[in-house]
Amino acid sequence: MPANSKTQKWLDRVERWGNALPDPVFIFLGLIALLVAVSVAAAQLGWSAVHPVTGATLTASSLLSAENVRKLLTLMPETMADFPPLGLILVVMLGAAVAERSGLFTALMTRAMRGVSNRFLSPAIFLIGLLSHQAADAAYVVLIPLAAIIFAAAGRHPFAGIAIAYAGISGAFAANLLPGQFDVLMLGITKSAAALLGPAPMLNPLGNWYFTAALGLILIPITWLVNDRIVEPRLGVWTDPPPEGDMEDIADPASQRKGLRRAGIAALVIALAFAVLALWPGYSPLIDAGATGPARLEPFYSSLVAGFMLLFLVCGWIYGAAVGTVRSHRDVVKMMTEGLATMTPFLVIAFFAAHFIAMFAWSNLGPVMAINGADWLRAQQLATPVMLILLLLMSSVFDLVIGSASAKWSAMAPIVVPMLMLLGVSPEMTTAAYRMGDSIFNIVTPVASNFVLVLVLAQRWRADFGVGSLIALMLPFSIAIGLTGLCLVGLWTGLELPVGPGAPATYAMPLP
């Protein structure tokens, strides 16, 4: 793409605007300041609503009242500690850090791509990209350069390999064939938002699984078609050799095979152990014998957080011991420490996000706005699919300028989750629609955290590859994924399909 083209100039302008945005911490500070001002005005104006379940009249409360100021200053540690996603994501990361740093995630992605025929390279790499969502940033630094080399070795354009890998890792981030860390984080935020109307419904890390898995399976042939019929023909033929040093295994093939074999056995043992705890006659601590229906499985769903942590920790440890990356228990502790260190930015944002959500609850603005907003939406007589598609489009627009999905959801969830609950939409379905919208522009916005990393990886193959070049490369995927997600959200809610185990698309608390 010419450097002086109108498209390039517009993309440069978008990049400057994105870089001019404040840090998410200061975005939350701004939201808190706005929330305080709105709460004061709402209290003065007497904003209120009648709770559709209890019949109680809810009134807006000023955050500058003596009671709320006292809560802010005396409950600050509790507010931070009680932020639902905080404990969940830190527990899972303890194990994921070991699996990543021991080389297990890298080995799984590398081994999975060997022996794949030229014809099926695109769907195979996209599938590995979907599965690599558990590997966090390891997928970017391992799978993307690996895909470029595999495509070049097969006589195909390396940028087509970069494109399909990036699409699977980031563009299809709303698709998850295997639930993991991000599901825990997002549904934790959703649960705290749903609690603004009263006791939160049962939410679990599998709450979006049916939707995300279906989305992933549908996107495999769609992105295959886009890559092989639209993206790669535009790139032409590549004849240059690959740059040096783009692919280095951390272990020799024999050790890698031994480590993966032992890690696989460990994974089966852990899965069997959890099955025993849920199914063993007379001893089923993961089943609530006193409950009925899906509620019986609530202990099992809650245990999945510990399950993911143990799975990653044990399998990563065993793999590392086999290949030599883990020589003693001290290495494991060091990996866990380093993994939690990478969560420091999240911890800083979580402090302010926790206070925003808590202050939102203290002000009563959430339920008041939700009830009145739901009443207005109901008067418009919009179909449920239309409401969720509007949410999807709104989150996709925000994704162009704010990179953090959890930060955006922390700000939006206290409003949209209760509002749509009152209109009969389950919290899980609302979360799925938001996640779909949030992932559409991940691969074409320069403000995305890994956009620059992918750009640098591409520049190893062509030094003049620019921002506009990467956006032009990925835009067909972004359009295809967005249209697919929009249609799927409409179809899912129109047919009222369950979003996950024990998670219907509709919620049994509509307005009377």
UniProtKB/TrEMBL annotation:
Molecular functions per Gene Ontology: secondary active p-aminobenzoyl-glutamate transmembrane transporter activity
UniProt keyword list: Membrane, Transmembrane, Transmembrane helix
Domain of life: Bacteria
GO BP of this protein: p-aminobenzoyl-glutamate transmembrane transport
Name of the protein this chain belongs to: Aminobenzoyl-glutamate transporter
Species for this entry: Sphingopyxis granuli
TM helices/strands, residue ranges: 25-47, 86-108, 120-153, 159-178, 209-226, 263-280, 300-319, 340-362, 382-402, 409-427, 439-458, 470-492
